[in-house]
Amino acid sequence: MTDATDRLTPRAREIVAAARELLEESGPTVLTMRTLADRLGIKAPSLYKHFPDKHAVEVELAAQMLEESGEALETAASRHPGSLEALAEAYRDYALAHPHLYCLATERPLPRSLLPAGLEDRAALPLLRACGGDRDLARATWAFAHGMVVLEIHGRFPQDADLDAAWKRGLKALHP
């Protein structure tokens, strides 16, 4: 994959990096243009020279999540060709390592028209390949993985739940 931030100016990349630090440290409620400007040591209006609004910054963060999670899946697929278990593990590991970024990018409508061309498809390609090109099966598998990850991130499973077993059972149900 190519770096989705290559299309940004160096200053815009710096702004997005600071936004990501804030997001990863404190969650989406702390990510405002004012706190972002404070983090960078500038006045908030200066941010608007690079991004029209907070949503535009969030689009760049979503692009980073798609880029990085896609790379994680590509790495898993190259190490374990055709292994849905390896893809699921890579997906889960990435999401749990970056829960605020993951949720920001996946718990609201995806701004497809604002993302780099082809990024969503490239991120999904390892799963699509593992599903034999069956888009419906790939979508169902992603929906299962996404649901499991979001529930885990939000602490919705009982403490004694065997999530590894649930993942294996879910994947086996979708891919007997």
Number of domains: 1
Number of E-state strands: 0
> How does the major sheet shape up?
none
What order do the SSEs take from the amino end to the carboxyl end, as H and E? HHHHHHHHH
What is the CATH superfamily label? Tetracycline Repressor, domain 2
Distance between the termini: 31 Å
Overall pLDDT metric: 95
Report on the structure:
The chain is mainly α. The chain is 68% helix and 0% strand. The protein has 9 helices and no strands. Helix 5 (84-97) crosses helix 6 (99-106), helix 5 (84-97) runs parallel beside helix 8 and helix 8 packs antiparallel against helix 9.
In short:
Helices cover 68% and strands 0% of the residues. The protein has 9 helices and no strands.
Name its key features.
mainly alpha, Tetracycline Repressor, domain 2, 176 residues
How are the SSEs ordered, and which strands pair?
Elements: H1 10-26, H2 33-40, H3 44-47, H4 54-79, H5 84-97, H6 99-106, H7 119-130, H8 135-153, H9 163-174
Helix pairs in contact: 1-2, 1-4, 4-5, 4-6, 4-7, 5-6, 5-8, 7-8, 8-9
